[in-house]
Amino acid sequence: MRVAIIGGGLSGLSAAYYLPRGFRVTMFERDRKVGGRAQTSSSFGGEEGAEFLLGTETAIHSLLKRLGIPCYRIRELVGVRFRGRYACGSFRTVAQQLLPRRSAKAVKSLLALTPRYSKYSTAPADGWLRKKLHGDREAMAFLQMILAGETCAPLNHLGVRFLLGCLYSDSWYRIRGGSGRLAKTLRARCRAKGRMTLKLRTHVESVRESDGAVTVHWSKGGRRSQARFDGVIIATPKGETLAGMRPQGHFHSYVSVLLQYRRAWWKEENPSLRKGFVTGFYSDGPLNYVQQASRTPRGRRTLRILLPDADRERAWSNAQIRHMCFAGLRDISSLSEKPIRSRITRWPEGLPCVGREEQAGKEKAKPISKRVYLAGDRFGEWPSMNAAIVSGKQAARLLAPNLTKLS
To answer: Domains, the chain, ranges and CATH?
Structure first.
């Protein structure tokens, strides 16, 4: 049977990987390579999109083990630069070191709720948080800074349960060789089975079901084509639109910046801040998250900078974004040297806004019909690589038996 998978991100690749034998897959991807947000820069080391996975995300750990891809734990602590001071530790420890006593106490009382986050509602979190913190501005600014980096969304788009879940302490892991390694390995495994055709730089225009089949219309290089399939898995942010439905929810954009320096450049007197560049830290300046992405044998270093909720910055030129990063780094540290190379990646459809949806985490894949399913990390409890893999797997497991019955 012929199945079309629209979108070559982790959800689409996972669906192709988990479809049983007897299904021939045609994958449509609008980019020049598969992987979606799981992209690792090939020119110099660093993640352009997804980077971390959590210890509690069992699906991706199980898949990595199955594929023979190692991952390693990097930290359980968080680094924070707030109001010109830096600290590293748990959220509670950092708050005690950086905030006034009253503000730290308010944050501590909030963090005490996080182990039971699943019991809370998806009601808007902004008003609830102000009330819980008794209007404390320092505590509010501290938490907004961290939540912006965790979700790439403004506070008024988050729900109470989602907010508390983001603050819950967990172990952080990273894929050895970068998140792009997972996407490449999945593609290789699918193609090795001899049943996946990949169509890159292809724009799918619509998906229409009729007469016991699903017709996919697409264009490439100005030329339009169409083909009929037994079933379709749509793993793109515009899934409902392609299926002729009203879009549900939206996505928060962000910008990822990689800056490569010629040599070891930091001269910080504060050893904690030196360590912070290695482990990564949140900042209350324009650069929300800063981390050393890699170090080459010749001593060159790459910094990764995250600009969340970046509708404004996404419209800027590369020169404007680089200038803002240079100025932000000078404010944070003694860094004055300019990088020798840079790479700026804009993600207009970055993280899905699931923080206030009642169904977030309940559906793993969404059925449009018995022949058409939607998949993506927006159907997980959190938008993550794990959620994308689970959703793709679920879509494949639901579609396959339906097509067998319909045949």
So the answer is: 2-44+57-71+177-249+354-406 (3.50.50.60), 77-168 (no CATH), 251-352 (3.90.660.10)
